[in-house]
Every structure is written in structure tokens, then in C-alpha cells.
Design brief:
Elements lengths: L1 E2 L2 H10 L1 E6 L2 E6 L5 E6 L4 H6 L2 H14 L6 E9 L4 E7 L4 E2 H7 L1 H20 L2 E3 L7 E3 L5 E3 L5 E3 L6 H17 L7 H15 L1
Parallel strand pairs: 1-5
Antiparallel strand pairs: 2-3, 3-4, 4-6, 5-6, 7-9, 8-11, 9-10
Length: 204
């Protein structure tokens, strides 16, 4: 992995558009060429991060998801921003689509129509052994071809078999917690669970 120079990083920040930041600094930038810069400030021990940088984990997750025919952003490059502080970065081509939280807020009729398809999509992830702890409406895109894709999938594990009921329930609890924290009103939760159960029966 190459090390991004201070001048190069500053040029990215000066010429790009900051899309997300927190108390620790800038997290996501839309670069001048349209690509996305994602900066990882890991909470893991720096020694462990230097062995397996978060940017590399993100890139590997993208590759494995794509191998399972799951749409993700296309990775362009992984690099170090500051190796001593274990800050890595990934540049990728953004996945075209609209996050489902925006669909829910702007076009409830469309969202409700997509609900059975969304439930089947989540079921398909679980059947592929994908446990995505951060699965929520902001991390699933509705793509122009009418399907779905995943973004921001660092917090993801691959199992060698379909998820068992306990992990499925845990995954839905995380999604439910997201809806509660965001105070999402009138979400069709029972309808989503029923559609998931139907997708599960239809796959048997």
C-alpha cells in the first residue's frame, strides 16, 4: 500500500466535497473526478490495523460480495493516510442508486412496493452466509435496474453456511434498533418480517 502525501490529501480535500465527518475528522469525500474517498480511523489496536488495514478489509469485502453477484462500489485504490496512526483510505467508484432511507422519506408508495423485494434481498444475503451487522436503510441502495446494492460494509462477516435463526433475529434487532434511534415513524416492520418469512418459505 502506498502512503498518500500530505499535499495530495490536502488537494483532495480542497478540490473535493466533504460528504461526511465526525469529531475525529473527515470520513467521506467526493473527489473532483467523481470517485469517493473513504477514510478509516480504526478503533482497533494500531498494531492489528497495520497487519490488516480497514481499507483492505473494505476492499476484500467488496470483492467477495461481487463474487456472490451482490452489487457494491468498484474499488480503485487502497492506501495509507497515516500508517503510524493506523489511518487508511479507500478510493472507489460510487455505486449508482438511492439509499432506501431517502426512498422511504420521499416516496413511501415506491418503498412499500419494494418491500417484498427488499425482504427477499435480505433473505438472499442471509442464505449466502452474510452477516451484515450494520444492515440498515442507509446502507442499502435501490439501483437503476430495480435491484439493490450494498455500501459501507466494513462491519460484515462471511459465514460458510446460511445464517441460523439466532443470527437472523440478531440482524433484524440491529435494523430495528437503527429505526428506533433514527425515530423512523410508521415503518412497516411487521410487513417486512412477514415478507421475509414468505421469502424463506418460497426458497425451500
Amino acid at each position: 500500500m502506498r502512503i498518500v502525501t500530505a499535499n495530495e490529501l490536502q488537494n483532495w480535500l480542497d478540490q473535493g466535497e466533504v460528504l461526511e465527518k465526525d469529531s475525529r475528522g473527515v470520513k467521506v469525500v467526493r473527489l473532483a473526478d467523481g470517485n469517493i474517498l473513504k477514510i478509516f480511523r480504526s478503533r482497533r489496536h494500531p498494531f492489528l490495523v497495520r497487519l490488516q488495514p480497514d481499507a483492505c478489509r473494505f476492499s476484500e469485502h467488496a470483492r467477495r460480495l461481487q463474487s456472490l453477484d451482490i452489487k457494491t462500489p468498484q474499488i480503485v485504490e487502497v492506501s495509507w493516510i497515516d500508517r503510524d496512526k493506523a489511518i487508511s483510505a479507500c478510493v472507489y467508484q460510487p455505486l449508482v442508486g438511492q439509499p432506501l432511507d431517502k426512498v422511504f422519506n420521499s416516496n413511501r408508495t415506491l418503498f412499500d412496493a419494494l418491500l417484498p423485494q427488499l425482504a427477499a434481498y435480505i433473505h438472499g444475503l442471509h442464505q449466502r452466509g452474510i452477516y451484515f451487522r450494520s444492515l440498515h436503510l442507509g446502507n442499502i441502495l435501490h439501483t437503476p435496474d430495480g435491484g439493490f446494492g450494498l455500501i459501507d460494509f466494513l462491519d460484515l462477516r462471511f459465514k460458510d453456511r446460511p445464517l441460523g435463526r439466532m443470527l437472523v433475529r440478531r440482524n433484524f434487532r440491529h435494523l430495528h434498533g437503527y429505526l428506533q434511534r433514527r425515530k423512523v415513524a410508521l415503518f412497516p416492520w411487521n410487513e417486512l418480517l412477514a415478507a421475509y418469512e414468505l421469502a424463506s418459505k418460497q426458497s425451500n
